[in-house]
Amino acid sequence: MFEIMTNKDDAEKQERRLWLQERQKGIGGSDIGTLIGLNKYQTNVDLYFSKVNPVQDDNGNKFTRTGKQLEDFVAKWFAQKTNLMVRKAEKENYTDFDVPYFKASVDRLINEDTILEIKTTSINTDEPLPYWIAQLQWYLGILNRPQGVIAWVTIPHNFDYDFLNSKNWTEQELGILKCSLKLEWRVIERDDYYIRELREYAAKFWNNHVIPRVPPEPINAYDAMKLYPVADSKKTREISDSFLNTINRIQNVKEVIKKYTAEKEDLETALKIYIQDNEALTKNNKVVCTYKNQTNNRVDTDKLKADGIYNQYLKASNSRTLLIKI
After folding, report:
1. CB 50, CB 24: distance < 8 Å
2. Beta carbons within 8 Å of 259's beta carbon, 6+ residues apart
3. Pairwise CA distance, residues 280 & 278, whole Å
4. DSSP code per residue over 13-53
5. What b/e string do you get for 192-207 counting C-beta neighbours within 10 Å, with b at 16 or more?
6. What is the CA radius of gyration of the chain?
7. Is 213 exposed, middle or buried (0-12, 13-18, 19+ CB in 10 A)?
8. The pTM is what?
């Protein structure tokens, strides 16, 4: 049994690796939301490195694995609710007729003219999220379809993703989930103007950054750290007047924060003294403040050092620290 499971896991890893390698060959639907700034979990710098760096072994996170686990279940549930003919696409990956680096990997097709995009989310929404719509419009352009449907299942916030991903579930077992999940869908008509805009963004990114290996401009500190992870001790840069003003502004903000932090601590101290040994303060039987006991568990680093095993559990990480000297 163990050997069978190991072979299955290896096959799934290999399948995902091949899928990731295929994604590197162009811009896909899951990339397009990032390019137009709709993906809060990924920036254009992240996307750039995913295209130019060697593919790493990646099993996805628990949310993407759950989405994969539930895809067929949601497709069948949607078909049952709508009485529509839902089927898998003829190809796993489609390539645009005119632009070979425009790619599409659709979830399902409905009849001959409609694309079905399937999502699982913990966000309680009554309408499709903007980056879902962008992804579907991208697919409509590549497959030249007049319309699509986005079907999504809303997952409760306390959902046990790890448990769901721990085994292969039968359709009967998954059917029990319908009691705790909410299925919704919307028909989305093809928008040629939007599709043209998406294709322009994708072409610029591919030709200005991926092909010449020129990363896009960073938009946050995380991007900057990815682009410039190591400081060269032999290099300095003369600061411009505008960024000298930025430093002065930072110093002013730090002073304001320091002032209000001290005031906050004084006010909190006064409140703690006022509470005495009560657990809460109330007004008209409504709790307005609590001061409860809590226990924190911390690693005893002194004991680990004394036992001689502290260094075994150290993990080095690279970072850069910003210090202002004026």
Report:
1. yes
2. none
3. 6
4. HHHHHHHHHHHTTSB-HHHHHHHTT--TT--HHHHHHHHHS
5. eebbeebbebbeebbe
6. 26
7. exposed
8. 0.79
Q: For residue 211, how many other CB atoms are within 10 A of its CB?
A: 12
Domains and CATH numbers, the chain: 2-226 (3.90.320.10), 241-313 (no CATH)
Residue 103: CB atoms within 10 A of its CB come to 24
Rounded distance, CA 44 to CA 31, Å?
A: 9
What counts of helices (H) and strands (E) characterise the chain?
11, 9
Burial class, 41, CB count within 10 angstroms (exposed 0-12 / middle 13-18 / buried 19+): exposed
Q: Which two tokens stand for residue 256?
A: 């304001």
* Amino acid present at 227: L
The one-digit pLDDT tens for each residue of the chain (326 residues) are 334 445 555 656 666 667 667 778 899 999 999 999 999 889 999 999 999 998 776 666 777 777 777 888 889 999 999 999 999 988 888 999 999 999 999 999 998 899 999 998 888 899 999 999 999 999 999 999 999 999 998 887 777 777 777 777 777 777 777 777 889 999 999 999 999 999 999 999 999 999 999 999 999 999 999 999 999 999 999 999 999 999 999 999 999 999 999 999 999 999 999 999 999 999 999 999 999 998 888 888 888 888 888 888 888 888 888 888 88
Give CA–CA dist 115/70, Å, rounded: 18
The three-class DSSP label of residue 200 is: helix
Residues 6+ apart with CB under 8 A from 74: 118, 120, 151, 153, 183
